[in-house]
């Protein structure tokens, strides 16, 4: 009963909450082609289950009617020839035992095949059973499969329905058809937690229970199942320990709340399509009741977007463009995005590797540049921002010296160590007014705290003390600090620290600070 309720909850959640993911899985894996195509047509442009269902019924009235007629005919034939079918089933019951043996052997073959044979893994690179083994360990797979085969092989008449339900509900989709789940922890855990992982532990428990002697006089025979249970518990704990050491996105809701409060109540937020936008827009909409839209690159010049912006502004609503790729667009559907501020939403996150469970913890940081969208006639000059993604290593053409290789972890925000002197030649399209840097100390307790001197074209803008984890540091640029030109030299200087000489580890590099990005804010005419 508990497992049946778990299945019911998983099905309800898949259909009514995770509708898009469920449909994607159904179309790619579960449904035949003609049914998948009909579902795709019905869901085009719609996300609510009832809308999709109504469109599916309307668009496929003929096919659904034919299916219902065929079902009614089948029911009639079964009722009409019930006596004949009963005699045939009684005749087949004489072969129940060899049939059950054949079923157990075939299921064992499929389990071994999907776990060890790589011939059918072109899509994900890993069989779904192997991915379940990340969480329940290979011992859990072995005991769970053994317990499942025992359940099928030993089921009496009263348990037959349950056994076949397990076959259809778990074995066919998981072992034979495959889940086509992406081979990384983020997607695998979402697919397997509701059904597959509880099922494996359920059958592993049954397998161990069958090894326990019925009489206390045979207590030495309890050593094996007890030992297997202890080993399974320890190995499962070891495999999942990196996941239990960190609360992912801890503090992120509070940061998103502060970000939401920085806008007027009726503001319209237009997000540049990006990974950061995908993560932030949902809580802004569902939790903080903000009007948010994700805008693709192709849609930034669409006349319909211009009409929507005009309508919102005529209603007295402020419109904002929020970019996460580090650049201010020159134009947005004929309007001018005027840079206002930068917000960083950062939280702990485990890495997202392919082919194994994560074992390292880092940080995910979404950097959001906020622009007010105004008509060109209303702003004689505009502010824009240029970002050098030093941590990612994608803007190294602007770096002359002073940065080590980027340190990357899958799914986490990359960063890189500086040396004692960093020189960057920055393209300038207007008059610089502000320099921002996101830096972190990165040093162990007791190591000297770095102080970073920031220069723009040989002008000392100031010195910042980088004492803790990553933070954003802003320095204004005086008007006399920059001479007219198409480029500006940005230089960072600081005292270094050598981990090897300090006896901390074997890293022999002279390290400055951890650098994520550098932003230069400039002012230029709006036209």
Structure characteristics:
alpha+beta; 9-stranded antiparallel sheet; 5-stranded mixed sheet; 15 helices; Jelly Rolls; 3 domains; 527 residues
Describe, in short, the structure shown.
This protein has 527 residues and is α+β, with helices and mostly antiparallel strands.
Strands, helices and their partners?
Elements: H1 2-16, H2 19-30, H3 33-43, H4 49-59, H5 61-80, H6 82-93, H7 96-116, H8 128-154, H9 160-177, H10 185-192, H11 196-211, H12 223-244, H13 252-261, E1 268-272, H14 275-286, E2 291-295, H15 303-314, E3 319-323, E4 336-350, E5 361-374, E6 381-388, E7 399-403, E8 416-427, E9 431-440, E10 451-456, E11 459-465, E12 471-476, E13 487-493, E14 514-525
Helix pairs in contact: 1-2, 2-3, 3-4, 7-8, 8-9, 8-11, 8-12, 11-12
Envelope shape: flat
Number of distinct beta strands: 14
Could you describe the largest sheet, including whether it forms a barrel? Answer: 9 strands, antiparallel
Calculate Rg over CA atoms: 31 Å
Regions with little confidence, pLDDT below 50 for 5+ residues: 119-123
Q: How many alpha or pi helices?
A: 15
